[in-house]
Amino acid sequence: MQWRNIKDNGRQSTIALENSTWKLIDCVSKSSWQEWVAHKLKSRPAGATKAGWLRSAAIDECNKLLVH
């Protein structure tokens, strides 16, 4: 498990994800993980956890890259 800090809606927030998920986010975000995470959190559906939403978004993004 790895924790990273980010500003979410103007507030400092800590997000804990598995190391493999952070590695995937680093890859799909082209090392701009803070911008990528902030952008994805803006589209998070009601009821979805930050961790679950980010994990799903990273997997979806990776799948898109593999297809193209």
Description of the molecule:
There is one protein chain. By secondary structure, this protein is of the alpha+beta class. Helices cover 56% and strands 21% of the residues. A hairpin with a 2-residue loop joins strand 1 and strand 2.
Distance separating the two termini: 30 Å
Order of helices and strands: EEHHH
Q: Trace the largest sheet across and list its strands.
A: 1-2
- Determine the fraction of residues in helical runs and give it as a percent range: 55-70%
Q: Which regions are unreliable across 5 or more consecutive residues at pLDDT < 50?
A: none
How is this fold's topology laid out?
Blueprint: E1 2-8, E2 11-17, H1 19-28, H2 33-42, H3 50-67
Antiparallel strand pairs: 1-2
Summarize the model shown.
This protein has 68 residues and is an alpha+beta fold. The protein has one domain (2-67). It has helices at residues 19-28, 33-42, 50-67; strands spanning 2-8, 11-17.
Features:
single chain; alpha+beta; 56% helix
